[in-house]
Design a protein that fits this description.
By secondary structure, this protein is mainly α. It has one domain (about 60-285): Orthogonal Bundle (MetI-like fold). Helices cover about 75% and strands about 0% of the residues. The protein has 14 helices and 2 strands. The chain has a two-stranded antiparallel sheet. Strand 1 (about 40) and strand 2 (about 50) form a beta hairpin. Helix 3 (about 55-60) packs across helix 14 (about 260-285), helix 4 (about 60-95) packs parallel to helix 8 (about 150-180) and helix 4 (about 60-95) packs across helix 13.
């Protein structure tokens, strides 16, 4: 057995199935997308090469520029609001002595629900006439707000719903890192007179920086590919207020006049944006010292 395992061809044979699947489901689709992004193709006729026309077309469209802006709003919200809340909730749950499992399950449940279910649920919650939110606000004399139909509120509503759906997943990740820390350090700090806030800021958070870095990168990548909640709740409206690059892609590739060439070009743009942003973060703030 030792002689066999020293043979490098054995390991090559072992990785061939995985490599074949990776090539079939990742490399090949990426290669074909890269080709069709430079063609005029609607999925039925013969693809004709058009060079950079698809990229010029989308970057010349004000709606696409607005979609890029909305994606960056998602990124900013994720990093500066969602991530701090994730850390806060993880710290609070980790400090609970009783029913901790119930709290973990409760915050995690939204992340396993279908986006369609969440969209319908929140569509009812934010309904201008019968929704609980407006019903509560009416107690204070506030007129009904059209959360999903007014441009100034639609994006805020989508951001809140998207955060509600995915924060639980990240909270569980951060919570696992917190619970894995040696308890002796916190106990020693508590004996020395450190308060709970001081222990969290100067001991717990610095020690879980690697997992926080992962959460930030996942949030950036998620903000770049967000689409399902937008399509379910607003379809990019009103008047493009919630349009993002991925929903713009869907509308171009599967709209009235489908253009898969333009759609694949947009997919490459989204991939490039996500790659550059995560690379910049990893090269600047993502580095952690041992």
């Amino acid at each position: 057995m030792n002689r066999i395992l020293r043979n490098p061809w054995i390991y090559s044979i072992m990785i061939i199935p995985t490599l074949a699947l990776y090539t079939l489901f990742f490399i090949y689709p990426m290669a074909t997308s890269s080709y069709y992004a430079f063609t005029d193709w609607n999925g039925l006729n013969q693809a004709s090469f058009v060079g950079l026309d698809n990229f010029i077309r989308v970057f010349s469209d004000k709606d696409f520029i607005n979609a890029i802006y909305n994606n960056f709003i998602f990124i900013g919200f994720s990093i500066f609001i969602q991530v701090p809340l994730i850390i806060l909730f993880a710290l609070l749950i980790s400090s609970v002595k009783r029913f901790q499992g119930i709290y973990k399950t409760t915050v995690f449940i939204p992340s396993i629900l279908s986006t369609s279910v969440i969209g319908i649920l929140w569509g009812f919650i934010l309904h201008p006439n019968i929704g609980p939110v407006n019903q509560f606000l009416s107690l204070f004399g506030i007129e009904p707000i059209f959360w999903l139909a007014e441009s100034k509120w639609a994006m805020v509503s989508i951001l809140v719903v998207n955060a509600w759906q995915w924060m639980g997943f990240y909270i569980v990740l951060v919570l696992a890192a917190i619970l894995a820390l040696p308890k002796e350090m916190n106990e020693a700090a508590e004996i020395d007179g450190a308060t709970g806030i001081q222990r969290a800021l100067y001991i717990t958070v610095p020690l879980i920086k690697p997992i926080i870095s992962v959460v930030v990168m996942l949030s950036i990548a998620g903000a770049m590919r967000v689409v399902d909640i937008v399509l379910v709740m607003t379809k990019g409206g009103p008047v493009g207020a919630t349009e993002v690059m991925a929903s713009y892609l869907v509308n171009e590739a599967m709209g009235v006049n489908p253009s898969y060439g333009v759609g694949t070009a947009i997919s490459l743009i989204i991939f490039a944006f996500a790659l550059v942003l995560t690379g910049i973060y990893q090269a600047t703030f993502g580095k952690t010292k041992e």
